[in-house]
Amino acid sequence: MLSQNLMEKILDYAVSHGADFAEIFCEDVRRSNLTVLGEKILNSSSGREKGVGIRLFKGLESAYLYTSDLSEAEIFRLLEETCRYRDGSFERAALEAMRRVSLNPISRYPQSVSLKDKMALANRVVSAGKKADETVSQVRVNYVDMDQKVWIANSEGLFVEDNRVKTRLHMTVFCEEGGDRQSSYVGPGAMKGFEFYDEINVEDYVKQAAKKAKAMLHAKACPTGRMPVIITNGFGGLFFHEACGHSLEASGVAKGNSEFSGKLGQKVASDKLTLIDDGSIPGQWGSLKVDDEGVPSQKNVLIENGILKGYMVDKLNARRMGCAPTGSSRRQSFRFAPTSRMTNTYIAPGESTPEEMIAATERGIFVNSINAGSVNPATGEFNFNTSETFLIENGKITTPVRSATLIGTGGDILQKVDMVGNDYALGQGFCYAASGALYIGAGQPTVRVTEMTVGGDQA
After folding, report:
1. 354: three-class secondary structure by DSSP
2. Contact between 148 and 288 (Cβ < 8 Å)
3. Which class for 416: exposed (0-12), middle (13-18), buried (19 or more C-beta within 10 A)?
4. Which of 22, 86, 329, 455 has its CB 3.0 to 4.6 Å from that of 293, i.e. a possible disulfide?
């Protein structure tokens, strides 16, 4: 990658041409992907990519340039085109000695694992899935891994290197019976190497997916209207990630484009609810030792017992807000300028049990899985589709129903959380926003919302 000498020349050029802050983000990433349907390989690929992104600040203005051509001539050509401020000169802090950081040790780097061993893992899943139930008609497996090395330097003297290794196994089981076909999906992943698959039982995961897919066979139409909604633990936390998490990112808050702008210290949720974003949890899918600006990741309490305590803040928006960055700046790759994004976002555990919530609900729905949806961070308005959804009648889970649609606003829903479970779990997923697609954790215990608008699939 870029030498320290070249990085210093780049930073010197930037601050001598008017920038009051300059940052370099170098990336060298290797990825591999294997997709299997039954015993058939649908896709197997691997690749490597290198590049550099350079960001400049002048006051509250910013400029970003990137290239995969790491030659000095190309980098300075882009710099010359970008630097338009020539009316000032700034001093740059000397680069500190490089710090090498890693959140957890890796014992089996994925790139050292053979395709044969990765295929053997996929075959274990397929075999266990097909044996799980007689209604299982097909099993699809997608294995992915990433080994990302980054170097971050800036005009404040920062010089840090981080190595981020992640792996994940997507497992989808299809069940068929009487002309009806349903599917269920599980996707365990971690900020770990291939040793992760010695730590979990992949057969148990795929059996769980088969059980859920079978339960949804012959599902009925979902009722519509206002009713209580219970959302399961684990990746059910995606609901709150989307419904209110994005509205707590400084990219919107700093410009007043969030329903939570200017509300620090105010009550914005039920006193049963505490919402946290924590990128420092060892081994978790959304974790990283330092963010993409080189700031150490940390535990950020966003809402505590209903009171708004903080936001997720990147360096540029910290200038706008007059506060410190929170280790929350992220980007998909060197092609994206970083901004405030979530890492592992979750609701802290409460005291209720799922059984108590269900027993306390006369009529409503129980949601086992949240699918994609949309949210407007400025207003908090959301619209989400669910799968693996069941009716609750007279305090009991009864009939499976086809996909429901959950509609509302984040601020309203936060106030209507009246029961929070003691069964906390953290799930794995992706988040798509301004700085690209990111690995995120989303979690919660089982949570009950007293009333929400539910739309149904009447097809």
Report:
1. helix
2. no
3. middle
4. 329
* Alpha helices, DSSP H, located in 335-440: 354-359, 410-415
The C-alpha atoms of residue 145 and residue 168 are separated, in whole angstroms, by 6
In angstroms, the CA 320 to CA 57 distance is 12
Six-digit token pair at 95?
Answer: 């680069």
Q: Which residue has the tokens 């049990």?
A: 353
Q: What percent of the chain has pLDDT over 70?
A: 97
Burial of 353 (0-12, 13-18, 19+ CB in 10 A): middle
Are 366 and 424 contained in the same domain? yes
**If 0-12 CB within 10 Å is exposed, 13-18 middle and 19+ buried, where does residue 33 land?**
middle
The tokens describing 357, both together, are: 């919530």
What letter represents residue 61's amino acid? E
Mean pLDDT over each residue of the chain, to the nearest integer: 94
- Mean pLDDT of the 244-255 span: 95
H helical segments located in 216-279: 238-240, 250-253
Residue where one domain finishes, among candidates 215, 248, 276:
215
Span 135-159, pLDDT tens digits = 999 999 999 999 999 999 999 999 9
Question: In the listed set 155, 187, 215, which residue is the last one of a domain according to the structure?
Answer: 215
Task: Count up the domains in the chain and report the number.
Answer: 2
- Are 191 and 235 in the same domain? no
Q: Specify if 433 maps to a domain.
A: yes
Could you tell me the CA-to-CA distances from 348 to 24, 114, 288, 341 in Å, in that order?
Answer: 36, 39, 20, 19
Residue 244's φ and ψ, nearest 5 degrees, are: -135, -20
pTM above 0.85, yes or no: yes
